């Protein structure tokens, strides 16, 4: 049932039902980043399931300690991959966070700012564009660097995450239809995202070029919008459902065979849109594909150029755990002449970005990130590739802090470079 329309009783009943799938085996514990950092059972998947089941059964009060654990969890879903019993922890987490919000267990200015940004800024393209115009101007005039020492700690940390904002001309929306090149193999839609459309427009343009080079006509519906993932993860199923409905309608009108997404977090959320809004999203959810999965299944046209580099691929949680896509990006990268794919020791561990977790839980986020950075530092690649905007920002900030020489890019940028400039 649509979580936005569920009563509290129905949500807790669903949480209880899902919690009964857990057989307490503990196989998920070593994969959980918060358990790995704290060693506390309560901060493990099994501990959280026990806690939520206790609330659902009325044995434990829904109070601050439950709220704290619900939000200390990164929502990375590594526990789902490890679980032999099929526990759907991600959905339990979303339901429990919605209840934490109903009970108003989170407060303070940061919570109010988060709520305002998610409801009044992120879903509104014009307002976002204005904000990014302002940020681009501030960066161009280097005012951010001048003001940095005077900023409060939280804002300094936010500044470290912010990528260079492209000038306005490079943030223009892409054409509504990009024709296929060569033999036409199909017609697909592209989700351009909300924040990603402003900060990572170059990744969208690279995706369009690579899809066109592979014979796909690409439709970029003008009336598409934010996928609603941040809202669903932040306990706001109403806004998440509203946003999902907008995209179902926009891509429905576009009449495409697949909806291609280059952001793992958005893709995972869109694939589950039917869990939010029911059968009206079934056809939509079934068409959603990560760009790597889509191209790998379609059969990649061999790139003509070379890209000489040692590359470490890092799995975004919402691609490997949320969508079960691990091999496709690696398969594509292996087809780039000159590129050497290097392993590292923590590819499927969370990077600590987790939506806005790196802003709300800075210390835990950094501790989780540092584990990954140590693994990447040991591999010492030329390039780190990962397919999610939040992970790109987090890994770039971390790589700078660890003084790694590697560039951090989206895998589609490497493919695009290997195809060479458009004729
Ligand atoms: S979602 Fe991630 S952080 Fe949360 S309990 Fe599962 S493994 Fe741990
Ligand atoms: S692996 Fe699954 S069944 Fe085992 S403790 Fe974790 S959630 Fe429960």
SSE inventory with pairings:
Blueprint: H1 8-19, H2 33-38, H3 45-56, H4 64-72, H5 78-82, H6 89-102, H7 109-121, H8 125-140, H9 143-147, H10 153-161, E1 177-178, E2 186-191, H11 195-199, H12 201-213, E3 216-219, H13 229-233, H14 237-254, E4 258-261, H15 264-271, H16 273-277, H17 282-287, E5 288-290, H18 291-298, E6 309-313, H19 317-320, H20 327-334, E7 339-342, H21 357-360, H22 362-379, E8 383-385, H23 389-401, E9 407-409, H24 411-419
Parallel strand pairs: 2-3, 2-4, 4-5, 6-7, 6-8, 8-9
Antiparallel strand pairs: 1-3
The structure holds iron/sulfur cluster (2 copies).
One iron/sulfur cluster binds near residues 22, 25, 46, 79 and 87.
How does this model look, in words?
The structure is a single chain. This protein is α/β, with parallel strands linked by helices. It folds into 4 domains: 3-102, Fumarate Reductase Iron-sulfur Protein, Chain B, domain 2, CATH 1.10.1060; 109-166, no CATH class; 170-297, Rossmann fold, CATH 3.40.50; 303-419, Rossmann fold (3-Layer(aba) Sandwich), CATH 3.40.50. It has 24 helices and 9 strands. It has helices at residues 8-19, 33-38, 45-56, 64-72, 78-82, 89-102, 109-121, 125-140, 143-147, 153-161, 195-199, 201-213, 229-233, 237-254, 264-271, 273-277, 282-287, 291-298, 317-320, 327-334, 357-360, 362-379, 389-401, 411-419, and strands at 177-178, 186-191, 216-219, 258-261, 288-290, 309-313, 339-342, 383-385, 407-409. Strands 1-3-2-4-5 form a 5-stranded mixed sheet. It has a 4-stranded parallel sheet with strand order 7-6-8-9, with helices on both faces. Strand 8 (383-385), helix 23 (389-401) and strand 9 form a beta-alpha-beta unit. The chain is globular and about 65 Å long. The mean pLDDT is 94. The protein binds iron/sulfur cluster (2 copies). Residues 31-34, 45, 48, 73-79, 89 line the site of one iron/sulfur cluster (SF4). Residues 22-28, 45-46, 49, 79, 82-83, 85, 87 line the site of one iron/sulfur cluster.
């Amino acid at each position: 049932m649509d979580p936005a329309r569920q009563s509290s009783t129905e949500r807790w009943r669903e949480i209880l039902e899902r919690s009964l799938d857990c057989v307490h085996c503990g196989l998920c514990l070593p994969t959980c980043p918060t358990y790995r950092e704290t060693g506390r059972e309560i901060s493990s998947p099994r501990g959280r399931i026990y806690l939520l089941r206790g609330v659902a059964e009325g044995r434990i009060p829904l109070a601050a300690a439950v709220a704290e654990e619900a939000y200390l969890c990164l929502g990375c879903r590594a526990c789902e991959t490890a679980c032999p019993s099929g526990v759907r922890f991600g959905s339990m987490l979303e339901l429990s966070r919605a209840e934490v919000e109903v009970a108003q267990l989170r407060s303070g200015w940061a919570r109010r700012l988060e709520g305002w940004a998610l409801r009044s800024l992120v879903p509104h393209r014009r307002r976002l564009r204005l904000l990014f115009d302002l940020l681009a101007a501030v960066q161009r005039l280097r005012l951010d660097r001048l003001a940095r020492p005077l900023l409060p700690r939280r804002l300094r940390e936010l500044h470290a995450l912010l990528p260079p904002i492209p000038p306005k001309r490079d943030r223009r929306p892409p054409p509504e239809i990009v024709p296929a090149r060569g033999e036409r193999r199909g017609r697909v839609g592209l989700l351009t995202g909300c924040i990603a459309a402003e900060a990572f427009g170059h990744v969208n343009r690279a995706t369009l070029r690579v899809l066109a080079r592979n014979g796909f006509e690409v439709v970029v519906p003008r009336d598409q919008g934010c996928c609603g993932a941040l809202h669903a993860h932040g306990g706001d199923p109403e806004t998440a459902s509203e946003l999902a409905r907008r995209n179902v309608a926009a891509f429905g009108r576009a009449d495409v065979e697949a909806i291609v997404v280059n952001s793992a977090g958005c893709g995972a959320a869109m694939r589950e849109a039917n869990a939010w809004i029911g059968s009206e999203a079934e056809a939509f959810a079934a068409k959603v594909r990560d760009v790597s999965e889509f191209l790998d299944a379609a059969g990649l046209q061999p790139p003509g150029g070379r890209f000489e580099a040692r590359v470490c691929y890092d799995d975004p949680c919402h691609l490997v755990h949320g969508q079960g896509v691990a091999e496709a990006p690696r398969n594509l990268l292996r087809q780039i002449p000159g590129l050497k794919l290097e392993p590292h020791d923590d590819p499927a561990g969370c990077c600590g970005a987790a939506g806005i977790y790196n802003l709300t839980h800075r210390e835990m986020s950094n501790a989780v990130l540092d584990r990954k950075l140590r693994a990447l530092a040991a591999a010492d690649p030329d390039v780190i590739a990962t397919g999610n905007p939040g992970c790109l920002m987090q890994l770039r900030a971390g790589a700078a802090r660890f003084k790694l020489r590697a560039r951090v890019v989206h895998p589609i940028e490497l493919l695009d470079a290997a195809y060479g400039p458009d004729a």
